[in-house]
Amino acid sequence: MIEIDEISKLYDGRAVVDRVSMQIPASTITAIVGTSGSGKTTLMRMVNRLIDQTSGQIKINGQDITGTQPHELRRRIGYVIQGHGLFPHQTVYDNIATVPRLLKWDRAKIEQKVRELLALFQLEFDSFARRYPHELSGGQQQRVGVARALAAEPDLLLMDEPFGALDPIIRAKAQSDLRDIQRKLGMTILLVTHDMDEAFRLSDRIAVMNAGKLLQYAEPRTLLTHPADSFVAEMVGQAERAFRLLSLNGIDAIAEDGQAAGAALPADLTQREALSDLLWSGRDAAPIAQPDGNAPRRVTLSRLLAAAAER
Ligand SMILES: Nc1ncnc2c1ncn2[C@@H]1O[C@H](COP(=O)(O)OP(=O)(O)OP(=O)(O)O)[C@@H](O)[C@H]1O
């Protein structure tokens, strides 16, 4: 758990982070969103002491971060930045092995870890380990960047626009991979993003900042249904609100018994995806794929519309 208590950062007497307090539960993903210059990156960089706070306190698992040398702290905290930040003159293998080597892991353990991470990110060891960053696509570089941050098995990962440079398809894949890995390893992730859809897709909680202040820190659903003020409402997208709400839930939550015509929808679709399918196919109900022998179930347009307006 990360406890941020009244943290501020002043430059020339001006607070760019202004008395921010938040408690980030362990094993959750938090996205920090806000307008440009609102202090998101500064807040995040204070957590691993890339920037020293002016006042306030940050504790990680109960320990004040100022009690640990910055370089030691950063070995324990994974950090991913936009454009990956890989060392250009080092191979993929050496990039990923950086922190484990600093931690003096033995050679076999390091190789095992590099193999495991490349496999996790679907990069063939024999083909990729000896390549240099410039011999990779942008998406591959990005995945190696995340792999490197995970190498020392940190229980906290800080990510600053990690997927900003990726095309929409690779980006969606990278987001779902990250979510899977986070669930599997149980780490805590703090992520800065400008992409509101990304924030909603990935996060357990979203922090909204403006002019150095934290306006609201809450679950995505709460931000949509009970925004703290008009700025938050605008930030989470008034026009998109109903669709974002639908994207937070699966169709099983509103499925009902009964038949419907046409192609069956996969049971793991979100309500937003189901709505899109029904509108596109011009039906007012669709069957949901069921295991053999189970009674037929369906999702209807009217249930979806009701769910979109639920507070
Ligand atoms: N070293 C510095 N000296 C003076 N001002 C700084 C310094 N670093 C950042 N700032 C200012 O602090 C404010 C917050 O910057 P920060 O990078 O945290 O914003 P951000 O929310 O991450 O912005 P963006 O979304 O554009 O990346 C900005 O107004 C910036 O100009």
TrEMBL record:
<keyword id="KW-0813">Transport</keyword>
<feature type="domain" description="ABC transporter">
    <location>
        <begin position="2"/>
        <end position="236"/>
    </location>
</feature>
<keyword id="KW-0547">Nucleotide-binding</keyword>
<dbReference type="InterPro" id="IPR017871">
    <property type="entry name" value="ABC_transporter-like_CS"/>
</dbReference>
<protein>
    <submittedName>
        <fullName>ABC transporter ATP-binding protein</fullName>
    </submittedName>
</protein>
<comment type="similarity">
    <text>Belongs to the ABC transporter superfamily.</text>
</comment>
<dbReference type="InterPro" id="IPR027417">
    <property type="entry name" value="P-loop_NTPase"/>
</dbReference>
<dbReference type="GO" id="GO:0005524">
    <property type="term" value="F:ATP binding"/>
</dbReference>
<keyword id="KW-0067">ATP-binding</keyword>
<dbReference type="InterPro" id="IPR003593">
    <property type="entry name" value="AAA+_ATPase"/>
</dbReference>
<dbReference type="InterPro" id="IPR003439">
    <property type="entry name" value="ABC_transporter-like_ATP-bd"/>
</dbReference>
<dbReference type="Pfam" id="PF00005">
    <property type="entry name" value="ABC_tran"/>
</dbReference>
